Amino acid sequence: MKIRTFLPTLLAAACLLHTGSLFGKEFKLPNADFAVATVDIPGSWKPEAVDNGVEAQSKDGSFYLSIVAAGTDKGVQADIDATKDMLKEHKVKINDSTEKTGKGDVNGFPTESVTIKGKDEDGPCTVTILIVSIKQKVLVITYWFNDSELSKHEKEIDAIQKSLKAAS
User: Fold this and answer.
1) Quick one: which of 49, 52, 91, 164 could link to 30 by a disulfide (CB 3.0–4.6 Å)?
2) What are the boundaries of the signal sequence (predicted)?
3) In whole angstroms, what separates CA 134 from the centre of its chain?
């Protein structure tokens, strides 16, 4: 399965697009009525508003990204489990024994991360789930990428992460 055919079942529609950005499109997360954060995603990634966030994919289909506001009554672990279930539905075989957790930050916001190695129909892949705390809310950022293609998209991913800002 090419990642470009992947549409996660966790997500459905609602974000505001801002067309003035030179980088791509600015999304208000989780939506225009209740924004906690904004993020810019390259237009070539064809970002789409989804329920409580945005999803996008690199033009070559090797890198998938979703950012959603979550962690409500389910809890963060439930969001991680739901992401793993969704990946299994899309025939991504994850190897739980490779799971690594960590703490860090994205553009100054504290994060907790889970990184898991796996395999999809294109070969070895990696899934990283970042739990980002912003304004006492949680964003779940999911990256799913083909290991051999990561270096091609590192600059774009870095720019996306640096564009993440708390909404005013």
Assistant:
1) 52
2) 1-24
3) 15
Domains of the chain, each with CATH number or no CATH: 3-166 (3.40.1000.10)
Please, are residues 100 and 130 in contact by the beta-carbon 8 Å criterion? Answer: no
Q: What share of the chain is helix, strand, coil (3-state, %, to 5)?
A: 25, 45, 30
Q: Are strands 93-94 and 165-166 parallel, antiparallel or unpaired?
A: unpaired
Q: Two tokens at 130?
A: 């970042």
In angstroms, rounded to a whole number, what is the distance separating the alpha carbons of residues 50 and 87?
17
Tell me the pLDDT tens digit for each residue of 45-78.
Answer: 999 988 788 899 999 999 999 998 875 556 677 7
Reported as a single tens digit per residue, the pLDDT across 142-156 is 999 999 998 999 999
Q: Which residues on adjacent β-strands are paired with residue 28?
A: 38
pTM assigned to the model:
0.78
Residue 4: pLDDT over 90: no
Measure the CA–CA gap between 144 and 161, rounded to whole angstroms. 15
CA nearest neighbour of 52 among 1, 8, 80, 14: 14
Relative to beta strand 100-106, strand 109-120 is: antiparallel
